[in-house]
Amino acid sequence: MKKLLEFGRKAFFYAKVLSGYEERRIRNYRLMLEKRLQQAQEKKLALRKIPEQTILTEVRAMVEDMQALNKKLEETEAAIDDYFKPINTQAEILMKQQLEGEEQTMTEMMKVLETKAMIEEAQAQKPAKADQIGASNTHTQETESPTKQEAQMK
């Protein structure tokens, strides 16, 4: 019975081969294998690209986060500047007042120093004038003395 079954299978196989059924089946199987192979290669390429894409998406996300952070920092800085603007203006006003006060004290000190220098100069010139006056007085007295003596003699 086994031999009969085996003979039937072989006969059936030959009938398939002769009719072209087996050839079509083999061709379909080969095409299916080629499609699977092509899909596997595409998956392989996709898997190779996935790390690149993952890295790129992570980098993009990081860049976006950094841009958002920079924007928040700029907004915070602007808010801080707005908050301290009145204080800064008051500080500038105070600084100007202090500088004006210092300038006034400096000008007053310069005036005081100038007057002091003039007083000292005048005091230094007084003895010199006194010497000149004394010398001129003695000179005038000497010139007047002979005339007085002449007048007394007459």
From TrEMBL:
<feature type="region of interest" description="Disordered">
    <location>
        <begin position="120"/>
        <end position="154"/>
    </location>
</feature>
<feature type="coiled-coil region">
    <location>
        <begin position="30"/>
        <end position="116"/>
    </location>
</feature>
<keyword id="KW-0175">Coiled coil</keyword>
<feature type="compositionally biased region" description="Basic and acidic residues">
    <location>
        <begin position="141"/>
        <end position="154"/>
    </location>
</feature>
<protein>
    <submittedName>
        <fullName>Uncharacterized protein</fullName>
    </submittedName>
</protein>
